[in-house]
Specification:
about 130 residues, mainly alpha, 3 helices, about 85% helix, rod-shaped
């Protein structure tokens, strides 16, 4: 082989070697980037899994609170039939004003009045002299 062919072949091999080295560097960079992306995805996946667990727990709590609230509302609805309506209370208020129950006598008041009346009767009957027949 003549020296021109050798130098041409040498230049081609050198060029080929340079391209292979460039390709290997690009492949290494891609491998590093892929590894970094994989780590990032794994971290994000773990973070999302934790957040999902927290959200799931919070949803369970909310569901429990909603169930308790539903039970309370159901109890209130069941008992609401026992409540007086505003109109009914207004009627009672009207009759209370008419009757004026604060002016009614208590049992103790009546006993006191009866005792006072009996004492007055005894006192007034002592003042009168009643002839006794013999």
């Amino acid at each position: 082989m003549d020296p021109k062919e050798m130098s041409s072949l040498s230049a081609m091999l050198s060029n080929f070697s340079t391209r292979i080295n460039d390709t290997e560097e690009k492949q290494n960079m891609i491998t590093e980037k892929l590894s970094l992306i994989s780590q990032t995805l794994l971290k994000n996946s773990e973070r999302i899994a934790k957040e999902m667990t927290i959200v799931s727990d919070e949803m369970s709590e909310i569901k429990n609170e909603m169930d308790k609230l539903k039970e309370s509302v159901q109890i209130l609805l069941e008992q609401s039939g026992e409540f007086a309506r505003k109109q009914e209370l207004q009627v009672v208020e009207k009759y209370m004003k008419i009757w004026e129950p604060m002016k009614f006598a208590t049992i103790e008041d009546v006993r006191r009045m009866v005792n006072d009346a009996v004492k007055n009767k005894k006192a007034s009957s002592k003042d009168k002299i009643i002839p006794v027949e013999e």
